[in-house]
Amino acid sequence: TNYCNLRMLYCNSQDGCHPVKFDFHVKEIAVEPSLGAGKNPSDCLKVAEEAQSFLAPQCPPAAFDTVKDFDLAKFIAKRWYIQQQMPVNYLPASQNRCVYAEYQLQEKSIFGYDVSVHNHAEEVAPHHKVHDSGK
Known about the structure:
The chain is of the alpha+beta class. The protein has helices spanning 2-7, 41-55, 72-75, and strands spanning 80-81, 97-109, 112-122, 130-132. The protein has 3 helices and 4 strands, in the order αααββββ.
């Protein structure tokens, strides 16, 4: 509810909240909710607990497993084409034609592998001007 959105801004440790940086104490004097709206602070904590478990799940998640014997060279050996593309600032809908990426494994360092990425896209309108990150 809107009450909870506001309430959580000033909830403190005495209320059962876990402040991130500062724990200050307030006293709620009056609450005048809209018709049908809630005003019970403990209801807000229930929502906050549910949100916390969703936003900060166990890391790694329970039953998480990686791909066994993952072959990075094979994974990046071919060109990757988009299947669906949401318009974003760096790739607007007007440049959503023939979009692909090519990956190339660089030398291994003490940190692991570096992978270079070559991105390509074309404008939808003819003459299909190319927008390319270069190779």
